[in-house]
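User: Sequence in, structure out. Go.
Assistant: Echoing your sequence, followed by the C-alpha cells.
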Amino acid sequence: MKKILVSECLYGGRIVRYDANDVTETNPIFLKWKEEGRLIPICPEVFGGLPTPRPDSQRVEGKVMTGAGADVTAEYTAGAEEALRLAKENDVVFAVMKQDSPSCGSKFIYDGTFTDTKIPGQGLAVEYLRNAGFKVFAEEDLEDALAYLEEAEA
C-alpha cells in the first residue's frame, strides 16, 4: 500500500496551525486514506521547533519572516528537511499539503507584505519535496490526487 505525506493540520487530532485553528480535512477521499493507514502527517513548522500558536510568517526574498520582522528561516528550513526525510523514509507516492502556507502551500502563498495578498508560489517544505521529485497536491485537489494514486498502484 502506497503512503501519502500530509500536512498535520489537515490530518487532525493535534492542533499545530500557527493560529491554533482546526482545519481537519473531511473530504471522503482523505478520510478513506486515513482509515487505510496511508497518511504520514507532518507539520514542518512544529518539527522545525516553532510553537503553536506562533506568529504569522511569510516568504520574503528567500527568507521566511514573521510580521514583526523576526527571521524564522532556520526553523522553516529544518522543518522542510524533516518533511523530505519522512517522505523518503516512507517512500510516499505524493504529498497533500495545506494551501497558502509558507511551508506547505503548493499553488499559492502570501506575498510577504502581510497584507493578505496571495501570489502564485510554494512553501519551503513543498519546494524541498518537489526538488526531490515528489508530486505535491493541495487539499482542494484530492480527486486529482486519487487518480494519481490509482495510476501509481495499477
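User: And one key feature?
Assistant: The two ends are 11 Å apart (CA to CA).
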